[in-house]
Specification:
single chain, alpha/beta, four-stranded mixed β-sheet, 16% strand, globular, binds pyridoxal-5'-phosphate
């Protein structure tokens, strides 16, 4: 089929996520047909640098021979079988590998297929953990602590512990109760605070809210170090450690949602490592299969899992599962992805490209419309503002972030903004020269979009 025919069918029948469909139809988005390394190629043969790792999940590139081969080899065995009443070779091998690589104490691996379900499962496990330990707790431990502006996915549970206001406006009535902890990011402080006094306030509020609510809290869920979908908001050093100390003190299980930050993104394999923190639950998805296939894991400690042990008649098993739980092709892709981290020394590459990003981002420091640049590893948010002094945003109807992505796309780079925060998420395996190309094109696109609007 020609591009026009495909586009007509897409416009007619494909309902795209988070998308106002009229805008999608007007815009004639590229229709991707193939990939090559870190590039996407559309049906008209145009090639684009994949500047956001295909929504933050690609790790080693597209059409990576080792990953393709691992999936083909698994296809020669079996594509899928169930984990209900049966086990499977790749799910066993992957669990062993994950337990070896994640912080000590995380010894159990529960499979699902998206970041949202990984979090949903952790929430349900935490809730049932208390109920299993003490039935009275199922009546009282009915509250979750989460971070202001957090994003943990789109299921009802994961939205309940999120802080994206439009989701709460629309689905509020369906959500369960949570306690929102102020996000310790000084740039977005309310009037009347200095940077220092706002961070002090945030640490104090963390302590107060946990002290006040600990008897009702089933768990505390956090994106360690970086709140990605909030616009790459970065917590100050020591914050995660303090959260771990307090949750331990009050006996509140800690859920680390490393769906975005895990698998090398922040410079270490897992973000928790940077503050020496072991959570009670660790959620992974996105990059776990190198961006090839849907797979997620919720890891838990022995202590959590022990509360689910018992006889059939105890009815305290974890009552949750999906048809494709532990899919064999996805597990094979994940095993090959982890192996490539070692063979390609991907974490060293992240350190090198992160240094390139530091150097290149410095060029924007004095830019009159760049309010803040947030960067860790291969995660970057460039916040565009109408007024640097007052930190005033551009009018939302300008859709400046979006205009930047259109200008970048015209010049062969795919990026996707979060409001007026321009996001760069090069794959952890992307070589330095392509990261340079990404910066060249996006920085020029920022200027082009601003010139058109201001
Ligand atoms: N948690 C975090 C931190 C995320 O960034 C995301 C997605 O961006 C999710 C959960 C949801 O993952 P998924 O889109 O695979 O459901």
């Amino acid at each position: 089929m020609q591009s026009d025919e495909l586009r007509n069918i897409d416009n007619e029948h494909v309902w795209h996520p988070f998308t106002q469909m009229q805008g999608h139809r007007d815009e004639e988005v590229p229709i991707i047909e193939s990939g090559d390394g870190f590039f996407l190629i559309d049906t008209d043969g145009r090639s684009y640098l994949d500047g956001v790792s295909s929504l933050w999940c690609n790790v080693h590139g597209h059409r990576v021979p080792e990953l393709d081969q691992a999936i083909r080899a698994q296809l020669d065995q079996i594509a899928h079988s169930t984990l209900l009443g049966l086990a499977s070779v790749p799910s066993i091998e992957l669990a062993e590998e994950l337990v070896k690589r994640t912080p000590a104490d995380l010894t159990k691996v529960f499979y699902s297929d998206s970041g949202s379900t990984a979090v949903e499962i952790a929430l349900k496990m935490a809730f049932q953990y208390h109920a299993n330990k003490s039935p009275a707790d199922s009546q009282t431990r009915d509250l979750f602590a989460c971070m202001q502006h957090a994003y943990h996915g789109d299921t009802i549970g994961s939205v309940s512990v999120g802080g994206i206001s439009i989701f709460h406006q629309i689905f509020g009535k369906l959500l369960f109760e949570s306690v929102q902890i102020p996000c310790p990011v000084a740039y977005h402080r309310p009037e009347g605070y200095t940077e220092e006094s706002y961070l002090e306030f945030c640490f104090a509020e963390l302590e107060r809210l946990l002290a006040e609510n600990h008897e009702r809290l089933a768990a505390f869920v956090i994106e360690p170090l970086v709140q990605g979908a909030a616009g790459m908001l970065m917590h100050p050093a020591g914050y995660l450690k303090r959260v771990r100390e307090l949750t331990r003190q009050y006996g509140i299980p800690l859920i680390a949602d490393e769906v975005a930050v895990g698998l090398g993104r922040t410079g270490t394999m897992f973000a928790c490592e940077q503050e020496g923190v072991t959570p009670d639950f660790l959620c992974l998805a996105k990059g776990i299969t190198g961006g090839y296939l849907p797979l997620a894991v919720t890891m838990a400690t022995d202590e959590i899992a022990a509360a689910f042990e018992g006889a059939h008649t105890d009815y305290n098993a974890f009552y949750h599962g999906h048809t494709y739980t532990g899919n064999s092709l996805a597990c094979a892709a994940a095993l090959a992805t982890l192996k490539l981290f070692d063979e390609n020394r991907t974490l060293d590459n992240v350190r090198e490209t992160s240094a390139v990003l530091t150097q290149r981002l410095a060029e924007l420091k004095e830019h009159p419309y760049v309010g803040e640049i947030r960067h860790k590893g291969v995660m970057v948010g460039i916040e565009l503002v109408a007024d640097r002094e007052t930190r005033t945003a551009f009018p939302a109807e300008l859709r400046l972030g979006h205009q930047v992505t259109l200008a970048a796309r015209k010049n062969g780079v795919i990026v996707r903004p979060l409001g007026d925060v321009v996001i760069l998420m090069p794959a952890p395996g992307m070589p330095a020269e392509l990261v340079e190309q990404l910066c060249d094109t996006v920085f020029a696109a920022i200027d082009e979009a601003i010139q058109m609007q201001v």
